[in-house]
Amino acid sequence: MSTLYEEIRELMAVYPEPRSATLPALRLAQEKHGWLSPEALREAAEGLGETPAYCMAVASFYDMFHLAPVGRHLVEVCTNVSCALVGAQQVLEAFERELGVRPGETTADGEVTLRTVECLGGCGWATIVALDHRYRTHVQPADVGAIVEELRADG
Amino acid sequence: MAEQRLVVLQGADERDLTKLAEYRAIGGYDALAKARALTPQAVIDELLASNLRGRGGAFFATGRKWSFIPKPDQNPNPHYLVVNADESEPGSFKDNEILSRVPHRFIEGCLITAHAVESKHVFVYIRGEYLGPFEAVRDALEEIREDDQLLGGVTIVVHRGAGAYICGEETALLESLEGKRGQPRSKPPFPAISGLYASPTVVNNVETLATVPPIVAMGGAAYAKLGVESSTGTRVVSLSGNLVRGGNYEVAHGITLRELIYDLGGGVPDGRELKAVIPGGSSTVILTAEEIDVPYDYDALAEVGTAMGSAGVIAIDDRCCMVQLGIRVSEFYEHESCGKCTPCREGTRWMTAILRKLEAGEASDSELDLLLDVCDRINGKCLCPLGETAAMAVASYVLKFRDEFLAHLDGGCPFGSQSPLDGVVAPVNQHTQSPVAEVPA
Question: Domain B322-423 falls in which CATH fold?
Answer without folding.
Answer: de novo design (two linked rop proteins) (1.20.1440)
